[in-house]
Structure formats: structure tokens, C-alpha cells
Amino acid sequence: MPAPGENLRINGDRLWDSLMDMAKIGPGVAGGNNRQTLTDADGEGRALFKQWCDDAGCTMGVDSMGNMFARREGTDPDALPVYVGSHLDTQPTGGKYDGVLGVLGGLEVIRSLNDMGIKTKHPIVVTNWTNEEGTRFAPAMLASGVFAGVHTQDWAEDRTDAQGKRFGDELDRIGWRGDEPVGARKMHAFFELHIEQGPILEAEGKDIGVVTHGQGLAWIQVTITGKDAHTGSTPMPMRKNAGLGMARILEKVDEIAWSHKPHAVGAAGHIDVYPNSRNVIPGKVVFTVDFRSPDLAVIQDMEKRLYEEGEKIAADMGLTIEFEKVGGFDPVAFDDGCVSAIRGAAERLGYSHMNIISGAGHDACWINQVAPTAMVMCPCVDGLSHNEAEEISKEWATAGADVLLHAVVETAEIVS
Ligand code: HGY
Ligand code: MN
Ligand code: MN
Questions:
Q1: What is the spatial distance between Cα 401 and Cα 84, in angstroms, rounded to a whole number?
Q2: 103 CA distance to ligand 3 centroid (A)?
Q3: Is the pLDDT reported for residue 337 higher than 80?
């Protein structure tokens, strides 16, 4: 199949305008976004995305986990579609581009093909995956995980947020539960455009990241129980300070990750302290340790050492400790054919590029289990993400979407 000509380009201004319009929905407090999954803001963002897809002549399908699929017909209706997308939900202090660039970059591919009157053999489907972030309902990539058969839908729908609200009830409440069975759709290939969320591409001066692999992760929720007591009148030797136990364990988490430098990482982003009162020794803490590495054996070693060290620290301090694995996936190797389509597109378009391993998890990591999958990344300023100050340039967004256009069109086979 001849590759698309170098002259095939997306409309960067239109893509940027759409990013800015979507960013107005679920604004944060510092210029970013708080459009958490299954909130009213998520529902609004979905409605805007659907409107844009309708305007672009797509037909929208929604499955019973709320995953959205906007289809542009190909000349062969029986050919498996090429899927392209990411997620519209954000962190509570999220940026304007994490996930959104991949969904609207996919829409821009459709809009550009419409502008140029290009037909492809395979249909093209732009996708918005529900609850990629896993911040309101753990784990991350929940709905793409159900689609890929990694989680059962019942288990996923029973996940609850900090207020005890169920995923399934919230999906019904915002009115975005579709009627399609999850995972019934078969794909010719899946491509995801995403910001790097790390410093490498910017530091290396590269426009494009050709994502060959994704590192694996383990999320372990730790519950430590001590005894609430007065911070003033309780003698030090009598204390059962769950907060101190957590501090010592988090010190160990850092040490364990550093012991596998340069690639392994470890931290706790979620921490709940009870009763969280200034003059009460914490009687209970619940926190989630996030370990990641491109090497599965390293992840397994970090997890094992957390359990061993945690038990020791708790025993020494007269605390009880429980561990629960609340998320995880093995390191991912993306499809060689799809990765080559992305690399060839960057070369043809004259964009500087390098191979990269994704530090963050993405829906593509699960979809890779059910279809040939690859990702294309663009840099982000100072490598910052999961922060309202997340920033990219219009040029980077355009380069990423140009490469996405070429990879998708080459795989979907131009007919005219
Ligand atoms: O956790 C992740 O890596 C993704 O941002 N959800
Ligand atoms: Mn993301
Ligand atoms: Mn994210």
C-alpha cells in the first residue's frame, strides 16, 4: 500500500481551537482542567465531542461502559475499522492536553480527510475511553480494560469513589451508558496520540516520540491502623501513630525505587489520614503506592520488598497493616507494524523523532491485547503533566496529529 504523500497535513489551527474549546469545560482553578470521569463536566465534554463528530458526518456508537466510537465510513463497510483515540476525563488538577489531544487529534484526522475528500478502504473510528485516569474510580484505564477483557464489567461497575458512589450508578446518572456490548467491536488497528508527560522529548529536542513500549505498573493500597489519641497528653512511648508508620514506609518506597535506578519509579499520590485532626494522633491511614518500571521482574521485586518492609515497620511500631492490589499491568511491547507506520510518517513528514518507552499508562496498553496498537507522542513543556500548568505548543500538537493522520491513513488504505 503506497504511503500517503508528504503533503497530507492536518489543520493545526482548528485542532488548537478545539483543544481550547474543550478546555473550557470542567475548568480547574489554575488554568487547567478538573473534568473527572462521570461528573457533569465529563457529560458536557462528551456532548461537545459528539456534536463535533456529528458535524464531521460520523455516526456515534456508545457501549455499556460509556466508551464512545465515532465512525467515518470506508469504501468497504465489512473491513475492520482503524481506531484512533484516547480519553477526555482529567485528573482533579489536570492539564488541557492529557488524553484530550488524542481524542481531538483523532477527530482532526477525520475533519482533514473530509476537507481533502479522501476515502479510505477501512472505516476510521475516533474513540473516547471512559475513566482512563483512575483518579475517581480506581484503577486507571478501567473501561478500556473491560473492553480488552482484563476486568469484568460487573467488577468495574462496582468500583466506588471517595463518597461511596458506584461507577455504574454515576454512568447512568450522567446518561452516557450506551447499548453496545463492551468489547464486541473488532479493530484492524488502534493508534493513540498522547503528550509524553515526561521530559525526554523536549530535552532531546525531538518533535515526535515513536512509542515502542509502555512501562508496567503496580498500585498497592496500604491500610495502617494504630490508635487515635491526644497529640498533647499521650506520652511518646504509648503512641500507636499510623501516620508515622506511613512516613517510614514511604521512605522505604523511595529507597526501593532508587535501588532500581535509572528506570524504576515509586511514590504514593493518594493518602487519606483519619481522623485528620490537628490534635489527634492518626489512628488510621490509607494510601496507594504506585510502582512502575519497563521491567516486570523489577516491579515484582519492588512489590515484594514493600510487603516485607511494611510488615516489619508495622510490627516494630505495634501497628496493623493490610495490603490490597488495586491496579496493575505488565510492561507492554506495541505492534511492530503500527510502530513502523508511525516512524515512517515522522520521517516522511520531516519531523525529528526518537523511540521512547511510555512512562505513563494509557488505554493503548490494554487495547494492545486485542488489536495491533501503537502510540505517537509529542513533547510537553518541562515534562510536566498531572498538573494544571501542563503545556504544549501548537506546533507540537500539529506535528503529533500530522503523524497520526499518516499512520491512520496508511493503515486504513487510501482509495481515492
Ligand atoms: O496513571 C497513568 O499513568 C495514567 O495517567 N492514567
Ligand atoms: Mn492520559
Ligand atoms: Mn493522565
A1: 11
A2: 13
A3: yes
